[in-house]
Amino acid sequence: MNGVVLLRRTCVILLGIALIAAAPANAAPDCSPRPAARVIASNQGVLESIASDKRGRIFFTDTDASRLLRIDRRGEQPVVLKEAIDGILAVMVDRDNSLVLGIGNSNTDAAADNGNAGLMRVDPDTGETIEIITMGLDMSNGITRGRDGAYYASNDFGHGIDRFFGGQVTDNWSTVETPNGLVIDSTGRYLYAAQTFKPASVARIDLATGTSTTYAEAGAADVAAGPDGLTRDSYDRLYVAANGAGEIWRVNRDRTICALARGYPTVSSVSFGGGTRGFPSRNLYAVTFTGQIVELVNVLD
Questions:
Q1: Burial of 146 (0-12, 13-18, 19+ CB in 10 A)
Q2: Mean pLDDT confidence for 87-110
Q3: pLDDT value of position 275
C-alpha cells in the first residue's frame, strides 16, 4: 500500500470517527494504577500493527513504505525485514513462531467486499516469504488464529469477519459491523473484535456458531473513540487502541473501560512483549500512524 493510499486510509478513519460524534476529552476514567508510558521510537512511518515473539522481539508494519520491520531490544535501530509488500496491514506471530501478514489490502477493495486480500507467512529472522496462506479475503486488517487452526480476518470498512479453514475461505463468516482488531480469549471459545466506524464498542463472537453480540460499549462521551487494534492478557482483560481518542484502554472483566494512557493520536495497535529479555511480556507496546512506538511499563506487574 503506497503512501497516497495509506494517507487516504488515515483520513478516512479520522473523518469516519469525527462523523460519529464530537467526544470530549478524558471521558473514560484512568485505570488504577496507571502505568508509566514512554515513546521508545519515533519517525518510523505510518504504523498499523505490532506483535512480539517469544524471544521478546517486536515486529511492526509501516504501511506508508509497504514494509515489515523488527527491533530486537530497546535502543537498537529497526531492521527492515521485508519491503514492497503490497497492501500490508496486520502482523501476527503464529503458533510455529513464523509471522503472518495481512496483504493485498485497499480501502476500495474492502468497501466492495471483493476478496482481493490475503495472508502471507514470513520467516521472522530473514523476512523471506514461506508461503501465501490464502487469498480471497475482503480485508486482512485484524488477524488471529483459533485452536482448530482457523484464521480469522477483519474488514473495518465492511460488515463481517472472514474465516479461512480447511483450505476454504468463508466470506463474512460472522456478521459484525466494521470489525478491526481481533483476539481470541484464553478458553478458545470467544473471538473479540474492536469496532471502529460505529459508536465505540467491542463485539464478542461465539466461535462455535459465529453469532455476534456487543461485549463492551463506551459511554456517550467516548462514542467517537474509534477502537482499532486489540489484544488481551491472561485474565482475558482486553486492551484497545482507541485511534480517534488517542488513548489506550483496558476493558475489565466486568466490561468497564478505563484509560491506561492518553495523548497518542492515531494509536493503531497494541501488543504485549513476548519474553523476559528484549521487550518483556509485562509491558504493553503500541504503535501510531504518526510513527511512534510507545511502551507502557509493568502493565502486568
A1: middle
A2: 96
A3: 85
pLDDT in tens, 139-170: 999 999 999 999 999 999 999 999 999 999 99
Q: Which residues are CB-neighbours of 77 under 8 A, at least 6 positions away?
A: 71
Which pairing describes strands 179-184 and 190-195: parallel, antiparallel, or unpaired?
Answer: antiparallel
Bridge partners of 153, per DSSP, are 143, 162
Q: Rounded CA gap, 153 and 176, in Å?
A: 12
DSSP the chain: --HHHHHHHHHHHHHHHHHH--PPSS-SPBPSSPPPEEEEE----SEEEEEE-TTS-EEEEETTTTEEEEE-STTSPPEEEE---TT---EEE-TTS-EEEEES--HHHHHHT---EEEEEE-TTT--EEEEEEEEES--SSEEE-TTS-EEEE-TTSSEEEEEETTEEEEEEEE-SSEEEEEE-TTSSEEEEEE-SSSSEEEEEETTT--EEEEEE--GGGTT--EEEEEE-TT--EEEEETTTTEEEEE-TTS-EEEEEE--TTEEEEEE--BSSSSBTTSEEEEETTS-EEEETTTT-
Q: What is the pTM of this model?
A: 0.93
The pLDDT score that the predictor gives to residue 35 is 97
Q: Report how far residue 266's alpha carbon sits from residue 288's, in angstroms, rounded to the nearest whole number.
A: 5
The phi and psi torsions of 11 (rounded to 5 degrees) equal -65, -40
